[in-house]
Every structure is written in C-alpha cells, then in structure tokens.
C-alpha cells in the first residue's frame, strides 16, 4: 500500500517518462527521414498532441492534489465526494496514458513501415542503376 501522495508522484513520473520517450521516438524518426517534410510535419503534430495530453493530465493531477488537501481539511462528507472526484480524475489519467501508449505503438508501426519502404526504394533504385549501367 502506497499512500495517495506516493501514488500520485509515481503516476506523475510515469507520465513524464512516457512523454520523454515519445519525444525521443519523434526525434529519431525525424532524423531517419532525412529531411522528408510532409511525414516529419505529421509526426511533429502527433507529438504535440501527445504532449498536450500529458500536460493536461499533469494539470489535472496538480488540481487533484489541491482539492484533496482541501477535502482533508473539511473532512466528513466532502472527503467522500472528493474521493469520487479523485477516482474520476485517476481513471481519466489512466485513459490518457493508454491512449498515449496506443499512439506511441502506432508511431512505431509507421516508423517500421517507413523504414521498409525506404529500403525497398533503395533496392529498386540500385537495380535500376545497375540495369542502366549495363545498357
């Protein structure tokens, strides 16, 4: 049993870590694209949306901590109501994390597909070059 504050701290750290991982993935894909503008712009937009989702969940968690402190001071019924609010926000944060993980997986799949396409085009270009030099 972790305390509520510890759980919130752990959740906040996980959100930050996931954000950094996604930013790193976005940067590595941009480098691998070798200046390909349209796909890079798409990935930057996706990364910004993910960052916005993380920022929103971080703000929600900060607001939740403040509300939770107020609820402890007021006690009784309000504490029960706040617990329900906390549960709702926690479920919302969990949903945001799942969505982010899903988007991250999609970005990884698109990166793999792009890498295969680039290799395929490279092989085709090499074959065409060899055919041209032989002719």
UniProtKB/TrEMBL annotation:
InterPro entries: Fibin (IPR026772)
UniProt xrefs under Pfam families: Fibin (PF15819)
Compartments it resides in: Endoplasmic reticulum; Golgi apparatus; Secreted
Keyword list, A-Z: Disulfide bond, Endoplasmic reticulum, Glycoprotein, Golgi apparatus, Secreted, Signal
Chain positions covered by the region annotation Disordered: 54-79
Biased composition (Basic and acidic residues): 60-79
GO cellular component: endoplasmic reticulum; extracellular region; Golgi apparatus
Assembly, per entry: Homodimer; disulfide-linked. Seems to also exist as monomers.
Entry similarity comment: Belongs to the FIBIN family.
Protein name per Swiss-Prot or TrEMBL: FIBIN factor
Gene: Fibin
């Amino acid at each position: 049993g972790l305390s509520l504050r510890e759980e919130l701290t752990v959740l906040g750290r996980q959100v930050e870590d996931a954000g950094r991982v996604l930013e790193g993935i976005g940067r590595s894909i941009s480098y691998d694209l070798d200046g390909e503008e349209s796909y890079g712009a798409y990935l930057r937009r996706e990364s910004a949306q993910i960052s916005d989702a993380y920022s929103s969940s971080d703000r929600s968690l900060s607001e939740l901590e403040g509300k939770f402190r107020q609820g402890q001071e007021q006690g009784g019924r309000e504490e029960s109501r706040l617990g329900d609010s906390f549960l709702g926000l926690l479920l919302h944060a969990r949903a945001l994390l799942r969505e982010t993980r899903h988007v991250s997986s999609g970005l990884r799949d698109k990166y793999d597909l792009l890498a295969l396409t680039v290799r395929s085009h490279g092989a085709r270009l090499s074959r065409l070059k060899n055919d041209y030099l032989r002719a």
